[in-house]
Amino acid sequence: ETLFGIEEAASRATIIEDLLSDAGQIAVWPALRRHLTPGKALYFSHGFGITFGDRTGIVPPDDVDVILVAPKGSGTSLRRMFLQGRGLNSSYAVYRDATGRAFERVVALGIGVGSGYLFETDFRREVYSDLTGERGTLMGAIQGLFAAQYETLREQGHTPSEAFNETVEELTQSLMPLIAEKGMDWMYANCSTTAQRGALDWWKRFRDATKPLFGELYASVAAGREAQIAIEANSRPDYRERLEEELRELRESEMWQAGAVVRKLRPENN
Fold this sequence. Notes:
Elements: E1 3-8, E2 13-15, H1 22-33, E3 41-44, H2 48-51, H3 53-56, E4 65-71, H4 75-83, E5 88-96, H5 102-112, E6 115-120, H6 123-135, H7 140-155, H8 160-182, H9 184-189, H10 193-222, H11 225-234, H12 239-251, H13 254-264
Helix pairs in contact: 6-10, 7-8, 8-13
């Protein structure tokens, strides 16, 4: 989702960085392409522009390095963790090594942006997994699961605060940190035996119910349909207005209004 043009002067390194969305890359590519003279490097933090080059028109010249460092998280999280002295893991890839120094450049950039560690990928695998993850468990699926459980609890007479606490707050404030610490089994081991039994009995049913949907999602990503939808939607002149309207719908839903109230009651906010 970001594209950086990196220029090196003969006597000193000069880095010119332009943060661009995938759709923004398409718009500026003709101008940027003219400045990619031999020996320079084109740095991506997402494999979108290169992998879907037939749709984006982004085809770099053969005499520049083309590299990728993709932090696995939001820019906000990356910056916060950098300031805390922590690192967000990143994937890296070398699409083209024109100078013989592409690997050195990509590792240096990975360190420079504050990566906790780097794992190897390629541009296609990065964008396929990233688009699937964003639409799946990282963002789309998790919101869908939240909404389904919250609505079920509300339909059965539970209050908004109770439904939100049992659906979102307990997960994000108590259980997710345990998963991050030592894994899912560690989280299970630190919950009641009743919770353990229910989770172990039900998780495969949720897997079986959703796996076909994930298969459909991955097929859509691999076919380029998700990329085309993103390009068309995000290139509209009224993109930001449409986005704000969709985000407002989420923000003003009962579940996330209840969430705003619950967050204010956290001890650190009082």
